[in-house]
Amino acid sequence: MSDQEIPLSRPDITELEEQLVLSVLRSERLSIGPMIEQFESLVAETCGTQFAVGVSSGTTGLHLVLQALGVRPGDEVITTPFSFIASANCILYVGATPVFVDIDPRSLNMDPALVERAITPRTRAILAVETFGNPSMMDQYASIAARHEIPLIEDCCEALGCSLRGRPAGSFGRVGVFGFYPNKQITTGEGGMIVTDDERLADLCRSLRNQGRPTGRADGAVHGSAGSWLRHQRLGYNARMSEIQAALGVAQMKRFGEIVRQRNRVADLYMRRLAGNPDLIMPTIDPDVAMSWFVFVVRLAAGFTMEERDRLIRSMRNHDVGAADYFPCIHLQPFYRERFGFQPGAFPIAESVSQRTIALPFHNRLTEREIDLVAQTLELMLTREGLQRG
Ligand SMILES: Cc1ncc(COP(=O)(O)O)c(C=O)c1O
Predict the structure, then answer these.
(1) I want to staple 222 with a disulfide (CB 3.0 to 4.6 A). Which of 8, 228, 247, 340 is the partner?
(2) Residues lining ligand 1, CB < 6 A?
(3) 3-state secondary structure at position 198
């Protein structure tokens, strides 16, 4: 994913992934087959939902979900400005308006009081992101959504395997969407998964991902029956996940316990190595949260500027250590500013957090020596750039 000596992320592919992908290639069943069904079952089991629908990406999954829930032009969807852009773009795809609310500075998820306050008669859904894989306050958004009789959509693209008081990500919303891009906890190259307990919604998503075709128990069931492959009940998309992608996913899910253990090991090592540094703010993880760790993002202490942060990231990269500014605020992205007229200052907490974040290299196989090297480079760059305050 990167030519950096210590890259920002790295997929964890073993012989098992190779064997399962090869078995699909040899089976000649490259789409709509048994692998996707198996992958769907494994993900549903992990997040405690009845149904799972594999799709071509997290973004596509979110788009299909909004469409399936009937979100339309004129509707408002409450969401966070501090996320990857896809969590707001999906709202624009269906012609609705994203209503951003500021975040809580500890968990970096939406402030529940502001979510409640943002609800209007036009609010059609709350779309909550588990930022950097932290499920904090998901239960609170679920209660707000229930009180107002609107659905909670969980954008859990970054959160497979984490839980809040034992309740797994993906099970809080009426529907949730995972993403499997190569920097995620598990990867299928590209891919995503919609999860829900709502059978009708799952079925509708299955149809939407498959060109609006009618659905059987498995989409493949209708493949052979005369005529039905070319019958289209609604405007659908080709959002299918291939058997090759699903084979990768099955292999990753079979190793999921070990993957989560490794990610926790790496996060613990970073915490121990960097926690005492007065120039840095560590991720805040509440005791009722069990993480599966998407990325490891530290923040420069209050008083550092965005320019200083950017300089630091550049010099880390120049020293062959991956680093990134996860995430610039969505409302300040050029086309959001142009379309909605957002100005800096609109969401002060999200902006102040976003200007000082540094994502550090994070993957399952980082060694203690590499983590030490990342920490040393970060400390050295702080000194060399004349930024050290503590
Ligand atoms: C919060 C969030 N939402 C949506 C997405 C989109 O997922 P994908 O890249 O699979 O389309 C991502 C992926 O990076 C994400 O982090």
Answers:
(1) 228
(2) 57-59, 83-84, 86-87, 129, 155, 157-158, 179, 181, 192
(3) coil
